[in-house]
Amino acid sequence: MAEENETTTPEFLLLGFSDLRALQGPLFWLVLLVYLVTLLGNSLIIFLTQASPVLQSPMYLFLRHLSVVELLYTTDVVPRILADLASSHPQAISFRNCATQMYFFIVLGISECCLLTAMAYDRYAAICQPLRYTTLMSQRACRAMVGTSWAMGIITATTHSSLIFTLPFPRRPIVPHFLCDILPVLRLASAGKHKSEVSVMTATVVFIMIPFSLIVTSYARIVGAILAMASTQSRRKVFSTCSSHLLVVSLFFGTASITYIRPRAGSSVTTDRILSLFYTVVTPMLNPVIYTLRNKEVTGALKHMMRKQIP
Question: From residue 10, how far is each of 90, 193, 205 by CA, in Å?
């Protein structure tokens, strides 16, 4: 009987927003609009940081890779959300496609954690170690940080995916979500999931709490350096260079912490979906908006490019 009820290659059924049929139409157009703005905004950031001579500092190298992550992140998730919203019935996803979606979801999520940490270190080096900045943030060091960010994502995703998708699942497991996220899928495993749960919690501590702690430490020292400045104008200038990154960090780590660290007893299907919709759809759109509107160098480069295109 166990072999009849369980299989290692099931077809998952994503419930998505099938219980909110009255809202599926408006949600479809809203998610589509946000997705198009995300594609446009992040593509613009990638183009500007690649083409503009003004935006060639380490901070913009990290920002370019962050925009690449956001583009891939939303593309991994949003097309299926749109397909689910366009249908009146829950959509099935194959075992392989579910594993693939989760794999890239983890790769890109962990890479973003590491890139945001590297950006905080860059601000710390620029403000607190100005005489050593060119050494600390050399091209070789920056490339190593970027490479490490992607490598940590790949290693973590490979480990998690291997642990989770070798567990036995029911023949047709129902996922109360719109994507193959770690926790909703892991909770469906029939047996042997304790090891994977321990792995998930360990990764949560390592890749959410430790990077966040490093970012907080960097900004604590930055604040100390700002308060030591005699000029009010200098303080404002330094703070303005950090405010965009701080806002992005707050959005990303805030939603990630609530989603993955809060007690399971305090979670609900609706809350999980709302949080996931925010950090998979809304946050990737906000990042380029924040960096474009709040960063004078980026807005200046954008205006310069526009003047060149318009005779």
Answer: 16, 16, 30
120-164 tens-digit pLDDT:
999 999 888 888 999 999 999 999 999 999 999 999 889 888 888
Q: Count CB atoms within 10 A of the CB of residue 78.
A: 22
**What is the distance between the alpha carbons of residues 98 and 283, in angstroms, rounded to a whole number?**
23
More confident: 262 or 106: 106
Q: What is the dihedral of CA 227, 229, 232, 238, to 10 degrees?
A: -80
pLDDT tens, position by position, 64-102? 999 999 999 999 999 988 888 887 777 888 888 989 999
The DSSP-derived string for the chain is: -HHHHEESS-EEEE-TTTT-HHHHHHHHHHHHHHHHHHHHHHHHHHHHHHH-GGG-SHHHHHHHHHHHHHHHHHHHHHHHHHHHHT-SSPEEEEHHHHHHHHHHHHHHHHHHHHHHHHHHHHHHHHHH-GGGHHHHT-HHHHHHHHHHHHHHHHHHHHHHHHHHTTS-EESS-EESSSS--HHHHHTT-SS--HHHHHHHHHHHIIIIIHHHHHHHHHHHHHHHHHHT-S-HHHHHHHHHHHHHHHHHHHHHHHHHHHHHHS-GGG--HHHHHHHHHIIIIIHHHHHHHHHHHS-HHHHHHHHHHHHHH--
Amino acid symbol at 196: S
Global pTM reads 0.86
Residue 36 confidence class, pLDDT cut points 50, 70, 90:
very high
